[in-house]
């Protein structure tokens, strides 16, 4: 039966079509113009009302979008199923993590075939045996303690995220914080591990920061305000009711966040109050949790610092401080804790272009995390058995952990012991499955404890990886990490990568918050590589890959540089015949979703399709609303368009939602790349309404624009929580990409 409706058909009419069996029209909702005026400029937002999540019409629209997506992409269901089975077939569903020692216990996680979530376990250390125990994934161990089975925790819930899992220093209690909505507010309970009677301790609305005191009777945690900003530090005594908890610290400046943790040597509790550009730290002896916190250094605008506590062999307490004061890419300083007014001593000077990311102190060495040649790297510096453990030149004794041929990613893994002669690291690349190794500090020898196993006969030699350098419009060279099958990509004798001809290509990008998207292995990606797709990461400015200056060149007033960098990379890949516009897909999430929306407006002709997950695409309106989560705290990242006309103009120039157009500059119709957008109803970071409004506006711009929206109605920023659900989601996205790029299935 034929039913004729206009493109302005309502939600109810669309539901009639689906029920009749006819082909669905894209969902539409009523336009309710809403004026937003700042600095003499008025914008009209027809879909502002979608922000009201308590409105049943809003929820009905999101459900209709999900139904439309399912109907429109139903023909891809066989391909989705095939991709899901490929993903699952490469993964050891029954597996075990490398045991990590803390005190008298080895801690590890089990995963079991058919179960969505991990099982956290521990087993006692065998006296006199220092090496991790050999534990088989499918074999039970005598005297194994199950700390938390997340599968049992998730029963009766569609979503589960464990944001707090912390064993007390005396090993007798575990604090467990669970989130069943995806809104990142956790309910924490304290559970017995040594056969003692259970407690009634239950705390609601707990955020991620958490630290046990050394007495195992108290712990510290953080809570958020109405804007989801962690602003209060609380102290709890186990065995008491939550209403007796004490607010220890409160940060009233809306640009600052509160976080808490315990030092590696377990001696002090550390509290950080930080904005995007300024920090301040406090400390407290871990064994006297009811005392007052002491200040390390008062905040100074645009000065960032962090401290690590270190107790040397003579029993002296030190602060190791990383700071950007007089050092764009940070430097390392040291001072005795008791000498609060003494000058700091420089241990590692500023090295422009080599960002100092972190310092981890152990009893006899320090581990230095840094950016080196655009990649994540780790150095080990043995300490001296001397009154001065650092000596005159710490870097002279330091050596890099060898991660293999570049581009590789080397980072610290779990290192819970302060007294140790080994450092555990993680190493990976776009072709190297992640491996965990212990480095003997004295010799630098690596002992591989485990490498991710890829089932089905993975052979790394079938693939080639490397790095391109693409010149941006201002002459700056942008690094691009690439990987592909050798059938698609060749490496010359000089090491230069050469495409064998234009091929389908997926270009990924992020470029915000100084976050580095380092090259790592993904077995899920093999479904693309084995179909002849090239995968590339554009390390655009605004990220942290090339140091702090790389970030500074892509934030605030310079934010448009992030987008032009990505377009320059795409143009290069087309011009050099790596791909063609009909074979090019772009993908990014969150702030990377903002990047996707911006480049769609800048160069819609360059891309066949775009995948934008939880995209920050209504960025100007969001940053004008101080009541929304994260807004005030991110003015230092994006600018404050409410207070600054210049910031307002900059953000309006690139905000994806505000720059959707019907016509090109020459007057021809503007047709956008096909879009797959995803959001989460409970997302506290990027409102679900941002992709929802964006998709509607793209459809309004031209009837030929293809835009799909998927909203997770029971999840937040990270999407589905169960691993099988996450794999199914990825299979759906990969099916969309494979189909759009015309890849042989």
Can you give a write-up of this model?
This protein is an alpha+beta fold. It has a domain at 462-579: Rossmann fold (3-Layer(aba) Sandwich), CATH 3.40.50. It contains 14 helices and 41 strands. Strands 32-33-37-36-38-39-40-41 form an eight-stranded mixed β-sheet, with helices on both faces. Strands 3, 4, 5, 6 and 7 form a five-stranded antiparallel β-sheet that branches. It has a four-stranded antiparallel β-sheet with strand order 8-9-10-11, with no helix packed on it. The model is unreliable at 1-23 (pLDDT under 50).
* Count of runs of 4 or more consecutive helical residues: 14
CATH level-3 fold name of the domain at 462-579: Rossmann fold
Beta-strand residue fraction: 25-35%
Are there runs of 5+ residues with pLDDT below 50, and where?
1-23
Backbone structural class: alpha+beta
Main sheet record: 8 strands, mixed
Helix content: 10-25%
CATH architecture of the domain at 462-579: 3-Layer(aba) Sandwich
* N- and C-termini, Cα separation: 34 Å
Radius of gyration: 27 Å
Number of distinct beta strands? 41
Oligomer: single chain
pLDDT average, as an integer? 94
| CATH homologous superfamily grouping of the domain at 462-579 | Alpha/Beta hydrolase fold, catalytic domain
Question: What is the CATH first-level class name of the domain at 462-579?
Answer: Alpha Beta
How are the strands of the largest sheet arranged? 32-33-37-36-38-39-40-41
Instruction: Choose one word for the global shape.
Output: globular
